[in-house]
Amino acid sequence: MKNLKRLLLITVASVIAVGAVPGSASAYSKGSCSYRKTLSVKTYGGHATVKLLVYRCKDGHDWTMASMTSNGGDSEGALWMDVSRDGGKTWKGLVQKRRFTLDPGDTASIANNKLQNDGPGYSVRACGYFGNNTVYCTKWN
């Protein structure tokens, strides 16, 4: 029994050290990725822009990052990414949510260690609100 527990502990530590299982939506490094496209949507009245920045990695997966930029107003808001396994019919909401206050021209983004791997079978979008509780989301990638 002691050996079995030890083997399990080594296996779990190895998975953590190596990273997530390939093809899963998980934290991902941008190191070997190149810019591919930006999906964006403006909030009510154009007061802010929610963006999903998409990078293509050498392994064929898309690495994504969410950001929001104030277009002239100052207010409080929030930003997050949704992840779906069925093309957006259902999703796990509020993944990596960040609340913030923006002055005119400022940008908030989800930290680099919270990047989302848009692997096979997964879709990702950026969502947020600014100044009110109306949620705006980009299209699914």
From TrEMBL:
Keywords per UniProt: Signal
Source organism of the structure: Streptomyces chrestomyceticus
Protein name: Secreted protein
Stretch forming the signal peptide: 1-27
